[in-house]
User: Fold this.
Amino acid sequence: MIDADLLIRGAAELCTMAGPGPSGESMLGLVAGGSVACLQGQVVWTGPDSQLEGAVRALPGARTLDASGCTVTPGFVDCHTHVLFAGERGDEFSQRCGGATYLEIAKRGGGIGATIRPTRAASRDDLVRLALPRLGRLLSFGITTAELKTGYGLDRASELCCLEAMAALPALQPVEIVPTLLCAHSIPPEFAKDREGYVRLCVEEIIPEAAKAKLARFCDAFVEEGAFTVEEGRRILSRGKELGLIPRLHADQMSQMGASRLAAELGAASADHLESIDEGGIEAMAKAKVAAVLVPVSTLFLRQSVWAPGRKLWDAGVTVALATNLNPGSAMSENAALTLSLACLMNGLSAAEALCAFTRGAARAIRMEERLGSLCVGKQADLVIHAASSHTHLPYHLAINHTRQVVKRGKVVYERELAPCAAA
Assistant:
């Protein structure tokens, strides 16, 4: 018999995301009437509820969660967020609704530069205080792991302060934090006439100090018109890679500059956004096994007319991941349900593929698939009970949060009373 200290029983659908794939449907690992047993923060058994009592022994004090009528999935992995910032940019939203573009707003003094000022003025404790409710809202949508980026300090002291704030967050709330250094988010105002000087600051000071302090896992760069060139991105990310920081890129968002090809060249973990990717970029990413992180809420928020080609990426064999891209300028939303819905409606994914992208694919994008993203024996017991009787209901019931209970490392960390919705 297998001992367990937590049981999740009788789900209408248990989506283990452990299927052999290549399609989203075959990756679902779907078990009708499925149950999960956990012990000391790990999954120890999955299967039909009818077989559980013959295989699993509940330890004294074990908790049982009734998942009748519900869908159980792995915890969502939000593999691209900018949770850590101060200030807000509601005025820019109004400008955008009036027809202004992202670049036009930036040239007026808005954009990333508008968030740099309050973020630099904030202390580490201020940044932690501001991040906690955002992480709480992400958790309420079933997100159990979130990648957090710097990128709103853009000087040595502020970027390191942001990383230190990230390091303080795990002790204060349950969402697992994956830290990324994004000192190459924008050229800060004081270097407006000295781009080379800022690139040197990144390469010679910020990246080495972050790596030495072991405060970041990844190094990211925004390669785009108005941000960094391909060559600047190559220098910055290559330096990070030399010092043990895995490269990632904001790539091909608003223009085609070859950023997705750079991601392939560098062996990056992911290239993110990709609204403007071309066939050559898709081919390069597939060959280099670079994950594609789609952030459809940002495409909507910026009122872009072209959406990332999720269908083409998936069919080309690229690992597709989803993320909220929570940030103050281009995706001010923690609504993971909206991300799922838009991925189906606008990026061309099926319900099963979108679910796979927000779990297994996203775990691969942050190179943590060995313990996250699926409910396999031996993996971390991160899971969500959704008050919906089928995985297809999650994106179909547009932008509605069906999260009833969230488990992180075998502990219930969020729950609310919510009656299950039927799939049809």
Observations:
- The CA atoms of residues 102 and 374 lie 37 Å apart.
- Residues 195-212 form the longest helix (18 residues).
